[in-house]
Amino acid sequence: MNFAFVSGNPALDLAGTVVSRRDEPVDLLAAPADLERWVAECDELPDRVTADFAAFESALSLREAIYRLALDRVLDRPFDPGSLKIVNDTATGPVPVIKLSDAGLHIAGDLLAVLTHTARSGIAVLADPHACLKECGRTDCTRIYLDRSRGARRTWCGMDECGNRVKAAAYRARRRASTTAEGRGPGGTTGRGGGSSGPH
Ligand SMILES: [Zn+2]
């Protein structure tokens, strides 16, 4: 499964690396190499970092703390103190170094800097009273995203990830329902003699 960067914030995207959290959770960060790939694919983070096992464990702990706080925010309940401590402590570390050139933006830093930046991004969005955090409308998804759309009318974390899947499933269900209805319909009733056009 590919990583999705649809949450509008790297901290929420990190939290989204566990999908289907309530039913059958799938962890997309199974090993340090997965974390290295996630960092490389995230636009706001350095292109290349190495993750040892201790740093990997810190990243997972930060991820779960961010998810818990985001869920607290979605459910409009007080933040979990243990998760607050993890995120706040991580945010005190060194930040990535950014440099502008004709080639564009260059971001440098190690995994510690990556986690600091991610924690700070998480704090910024969780502290913003105007940030509209939502859980994806597809029940199995459980991804939390920042809805920046006008009037906050977004329903899905992403169209490719969930919106199109839900729409395709609804379309298939409608097709099935109408096929069944045709099968049972007046055309399929008895008494026409030949019966070659019957449903069976
Ligand atoms: Zn989703």
TrEMBL record:
Q: Where is the composition biased (Gly residues)?
A: 184-200
Instruction: Please give the InterPro entries that the UniProt record associates with this protein.
Output: ABATE, ABATE_dom_sf, Znf_CGNR
Coiled-coil stretches, from where to where?
none
Ranges for domain Zinc finger CGNR? 133-175
Region (Disordered) residue ranges read 173-200
Q: Where does the secretion signal sit in this chain?
A: none
What name has this protein been given in UniProt?
Zinc finger CGNR domain-containing protein
Tell me the lineage of the source organism: Bacteria, Bacillati, Actinomycetota, Actinomycetes, Kitasatosporales
